[in-house]
Amino acid sequence: MLASDDDILSKAQQWREAGKGVAIATVVETWGSAPRPVGSHLVIDGDGNFLGSVSGGCVEGAVVSEAGDVICDGKPRTLEFGVADETAWRVGLSCGGRIKVYVERVE
């Protein structure tokens, strides 16, 4: 079962109150076959713990990795994953779709 938006935002708040660095990733665009709809969230702490889903599989591993950089430098990033991308097979979007994920630090 996927976490609700309330669960994800509550976890972000808990981690921030505990003094952890936190980032949130949001699906902002999809094309073709995509496992999660626009507006789906993944919250990540500075230790690499996460809750929620932006795609599933290896895409989330890549997003968690980028989120660590966002937490450290505070610079938001827009990530794209898709079948036309040379990394598509590596990150698990062989379904023919593409997604765009915005990752930002929670202050």
Helix content: 25-40%
- Largest beta sheet, briefly? 5 strands, antiparallel
Tell me the number of strands.
5
| Count, helices | 3
- Along the chain, the helix and strand elements come as HEEEHEHE
Give the distance, in angstroms, between the N- and C-terminal Cα atoms.
28 Å
Structural class: alpha+beta
- Count of folded domains: 1
- Detail the poorly predicted runs: none
Tell me the overall shape.
globular
Radius of gyration: 13 Å
Beta-strand percent range: 25-35%
Mean pLDDT: 87
Q: How are strands sequenced across the largest beta sheet?
A: 3-2-1-5-4
For this entry, give a set of tags.
107 residues, alpha+beta, 3 helices
Mind explaining what this structure looks like?
By secondary structure, this protein is an alpha+beta fold. The protein has one domain (5-106). Helices cover 32% and strands 31% of the residues. The chain has helices at residues 5-17, 57-73, 88-91, and strands at residues 22-31, 41-45, 50-52, 77-82, 98-106. Strands 3-2-1-5-4 form a five-stranded antiparallel beta sheet, sandwiched between helices. The longest helix is centred in the middle third of the chain and has 17 residues, at 57-73. The model has no long low-confidence stretch (mean pLDDT 87).
